[in-house]
Every structure is written in C-alpha cells, then in structure tokens.
Amino acid sequence: TTLVQTINVVDTTAPTFDVVLPEDVTVECDVIPTVETITATDNCGNATITVVENTMTGSCENEYTLVRIWTAADACGNSIEHTQTITVIDTTAPTFNEALPADIDVECNAIPTAETLTASDNCGDATVDFEEEVTNGACVGDQIIERTWKAVDSCNNEIEHTQIITVRDTTAPTLVTPFDEDITAACDDIPAVPDLVFQDECSNNINVDFNEVSTQQNDFEDYEIIRTWTVTDDCGNEAEFVQTVSVELSNIINAFDSSRCVLDIEFDLFDLLSGDFDMNGTWSVVSGNATINGSLFDPSTVDVGVYTFMYSITEGPCPKEVEVNVTIDDDCVVLPCGEEDVVISKTVTANGDAYNEFFTISGVEDCGFVIELQIFNRWGAEIYKNNNYQNDWNGDAHGSSVGSSGKVPTGTYYYIINLRNSGLKPFAGPIYVATNK
C-alpha cells in the first residue's frame, strides 16, 4: 500500500526584535537622539526592518513630537512593529554673544551710546530687543538711564541684561567769549563791561550774576575796578570769572606860575590858566595867608610872598588838579628915593681882605628899583652887563675884556647905572679896579 502524507507548512509567526527597544522620551531640541538600529529574527527565515518617522508640530518652532515606527516583516508577511514617541521641547534661553555693558557713573556730557548686542540660541535664531528708560533727577544734568537688552528665541525663552547709567553734572559752566582778565586803562578810557557768553555741557539754563566794585578811595589816586561774573548751572555748579581794570590817573596835575604886584586890583584866577577847563571845579588856598572869593583874588590884601592856589575838578571819570603859584611883589611900588640917596662905590679891590671886594650901589635897597648896570673899559668895550644887578661884580672878565686870567686888568673903568622904575636919569662915572694884574 502506498501511504501519502500531505504536510501543509504554514508560517504564521511574526519575527521578534533582538534588542532592547527604545522607549518614549522627552528631550531638549538640541539633544534629539538619532534613530536606533533595531534587528529582528524570524523562526523560518530572515526578517526585514523598515523605519518610518513622523513629525507632529507643537506650539512653537522648536517644540514638536517625533513618532518613530520600526516594522519587522518575514517572507510570509508576518510582521511586528515598535513605536517610539519623542517629545521635543525648548526650555533653554538664548545667550548673548558680546561682553555685557556694566553699570557706570558718568558726567552728563559723556553718556555712552548704547551697545549693539546679539544673541545665539541652542535650537535656532534669537532676536534682541532694546529698551531705554530715563529717570530725571533733581536738575537737568542728573538722571538715571536704564538700558535693557532682551534676547528671545522662537519658543519665547528669553534672557535680559540691564545696565544702569548714573548721570551726574559736576562741571561748572565755561566761558566762550575771549576775555582779558587784567587791563590797564586811563581814567578817560575805561573799557565798557564786556558782554560775555557762557556755555554749559548739560544745560541751557545758566544763571549769571555780575558785580562791579571800585577800590577808589579819593579823587586823585589810581584805583582798580573789579568785575566779577558768578556763573551757575542748573545743578548748582559754579564758576567765577574776574576782570581787574587798573585805572591810572595820569597827567592830572598841571602847574601855572604868575606874578602880581601888591598894588594890583582883584583878578580872576581862571585868567592864569591856559587851555580848556571845566568851570564847575573848586578853588582853594594851599599855602600863604590869603583868602579868595570863589576864583577872585585881591593882591592888595596880602603881603609880598608866594601864594599857592589849587583848582580841583572832581566831576567825570578823570579828576584834575591845577596848581597856580602867584608871586606877589612890590616892584610896582616906587618909594620916595632921590638921586642923593644913591651911593656908588669908587673902587674895587678883589684881594680877599673883605674891603671893596665888589662894586656896590647902595641906598636904594628899599626903593623898589631894579638896577641895570653896564661897565666899559677905556676903549668903550662893554666888559660887564646885568639887568638886575645884585652888587656881586668883583672884576670878573668876559670874552671881550683884556687878559686871560678871569679878571680884568687893573685900571680905570666906566659904569652906566639905570635905576628902572625910579624916574631918575642914568648915573655914569669912573670906577678904579685893582686885580693884581
């Protein structure tokens, strides 16, 4: 007999995975695990592995879900699969790339410009936003500046940096206008107060306090004008600028000399001045026992002598004093002197014995005459002349005389004497001169 056995071979068993299967995980966006290599075995042959990865978007660019499916299939279509779910999250903030600006204290004219900061993110791009907030202080130059840089990624993770700038104004205003601190000027050429311009680094609100002081103690001495500008800004910073004008009262005193006789009538002292003078000044007596009526002076009320008067002008920038010296004489007074009063010496013996040393004309000392004397030699040559003779000729020679020893030769000479203001005729006669020559 023949036995026939029919064996129906079927394959209904799926392959099995050989490795530990990857589990579901939650990871940061910058540490997503790579796809693992999984192997499988089949009870009847080989198994083929296929992998499919699907992405499901999340709430932001860097947050999403990865679904990885590994399928192991044998030749008969038996299969097995494993699914891994990877939840990708982004919780890491960006970081700044540059060194961050530190808190600082600065002057109001030295506020730095804002830094430009950039940032990097672990999973993508980051944007940097900048904000600045200014809080004013008690004055224009004082303030607090708060600068904030905020870096944000696509999932709104953010980081920020704040810089506090404390702004202070400790600098006083400065002078813009060219400025002479020291000036020397004549009293009639004092410069006007200059129009100074000041500036401040932080504020246009500048207060200028000007003060001018003169050191003048009287009308006739040099003095100083001290001009002070005190300049203050809005924060109370103060600077002082000083100009000193040295005023010179040069050429303020003039002197005039004149003479009058005791018989002259009252006259105006202004008549003795030359040039233009302000008539509003004051006359005063400086020396001599005299009185004046305003500018009027009467010589007949005083004795013979010298009288000094001062005319003072104190109005205006340049005071002036004028000194007038008036000599009062009695030349105009003719005393009752006659020819018989005149005594003329006959001999001159200039030998040092104190007798007849000089040619003298006496007897007229109190007559008010002026003696005019001429002496001639025997040839008619004038050897001496004096229009105001004072009894002081002792035989001295001049260029036209004979001899070279400084004295005229011994001999007889001739004189002519005129007594001016006497009304007398001139006197003439011989004079014997002995000079040991």
TrEMBL record:
InterPro entries: HYR-4C (IPR057078), T9SS_type_B (IPR026341). Residues 22-88, 177-247 form the HYR-like domain. Pfam families: CHU_C, HYR_4C. It comes from the Bacteria. This is Gliding motility-associated C-terminal domain-containing protein. It comes from Winogradskyella luteola. The lineage of its organism: Bacteria, Pseudomonadati, Bacteroidota, Flavobacteriia, Flavobacteriales.
